[in-house]
Amino acid sequence: VPLKETNSSPLLKQYKTMAIFYRSGFAILTLAASSHFSPRILVTAFTPISATLLRSCRSPPSPPYRQITPNNGKRPHALFSTSSDKSPIREKIRYIAGRRALVLHPSTTPQTTLPPLVILGGMAQSISSWEFHLQHLCSVRSVMVYEALGQGPPPPSEVCSIDGSDVTLEQYYRDVTLERQGRDFWEVVDEAFYDPDSYYRQNFVGGDGSSVLSEKQVDVAGFSFGGRVAMAAATLRPRRIRRLHLTGVGAERDEYATVVLTSWKEILGAHSETHADSSAQWEVSETDIEEECDPELHSSRCTARLRAFAWCIILSTYSEQFLASAGPRRVQAWVDGVCRYNTEEGLKALLMQTHGSVVHEVGRKLSIESSEQNANLDLWTPASMAQRIKTDGCVESFRVVVGSQDKMASPIQALKLAQLLGLSNNDCNDGIQESESLNRYFRVIDGCGHAVPMEALKLWREDVLEFLAKCIDFRGFGIQSGRHQSRDSRRERPMPPFRIWSMFFALGITSLLDI
């Protein structure tokens, strides 16, 4: 409680002077240990006059995406942009090789030519899900995020065609297998970066980029379904992927994840023969079917099935702590985002063709493909692709990241995938998963569910940047414990000089005024 200014007793003045020195020492220690200069941390030690002056010289607050940690109790930022206004980033979205994509380049030409970074999101994600990462990832390299076939809003009529003929969404998504996704990946990459007329090749491939240009290499960061698409691309052309960062991908599905996937298929009608009698509850009104669709605003049919699927996938892929800190309103906004940027037809096709046995709906009946085609499907499981990638030995390095509370790709299954990629059992000791000889890593993020890139934005982004920049020795770093960075990394970031001098200047003035 501030002392009254009207009391002029010498003893009180002396006491007040000592209190000011105590307050100053408390403030110095607090600010030195804090990465955010805010007067709110001084409430218990300073008078209102002091807080007002300190507020005038504080550094700008951290943006929302830097404040989110898995277990700090803060409300997370939106996973989808709920604003109707188009952001400057979203206005750059265009179709590349028939896929909705966003390409960002560094503001200045880097001294060293680095391969572009391609980001591949999860099954029900869109480009909007990655807006908070892109500005940070494209500081020294070109970055592209695109929506694979089956993801994203319904394509325009000029794209939704086969051999020049207009088709329905069901026909357009007839083949969304991982093999097809891998071929599409390289078509998009070649047109976006290595076409002779591409902006990247003309402006960002210098004299030192001859190897990048000759090999046409890229770095890839894939999450969940996007991670399996990245592995399919690496299986088809292993020499063209330099480094592969996988998040939320396991060698196999455990029992719980299998049950969750079955529920998703049931919700979207993949087993419509079993539930033909109860299909009336999923009927869509004529107004919903005839409503015109804006790809930027909503999906083709925001049916009850699609909304139920959105709720189910969010509850299954995010940790309980994260959802509790978000609150019902934000979760509702995320559900709206899934419905706005996805189609029921595309998600259903992805579930049937990339998550288990291949099935095609013929009228009201489902027919399982021949055993030969099912055997071909087995060639594109994560475990099979990992073995083929390891055999080729062309990809320079890998990292497998997983949340400790991941229900869809458990840490055990993620570790199995890392071992198939080349992680030795002898390197998994004392909680440090590392293989220096083969330069492949495995990492568990404590307190996160399946969606690590969305729950721990900064931590995941820094992990990707560090992995791509150099092959880091994580000895002593170990498994994260709900923090964005290690103590060593925090020590390496000193307080800016402006903050130090402004702090002492403010403390000197406030001490004189308080006395």
Automatic annotation (TrEMBL):
A matching Pfam family: Abhydrolase_6
UniProt lineage: Eukaryota, Sar, Stramenopiles, Ochrophyta, Bacillariophyta
Superkingdom, natural source: Eukaryota
Protein species of origin: Cyclotella cryptica
Domain AB hydrolase-1 span(s) in chain numbering: 118-455
Location of region: Disordered: 58-83
Protein name: AB hydrolase-1 domain-containing protein
InterPro entries in alphabetical order: AB_hydrolase_1, AB_hydrolase_fold
Alphabetized Gene3D superfamilies for the sequence: alpha/beta hydrolase
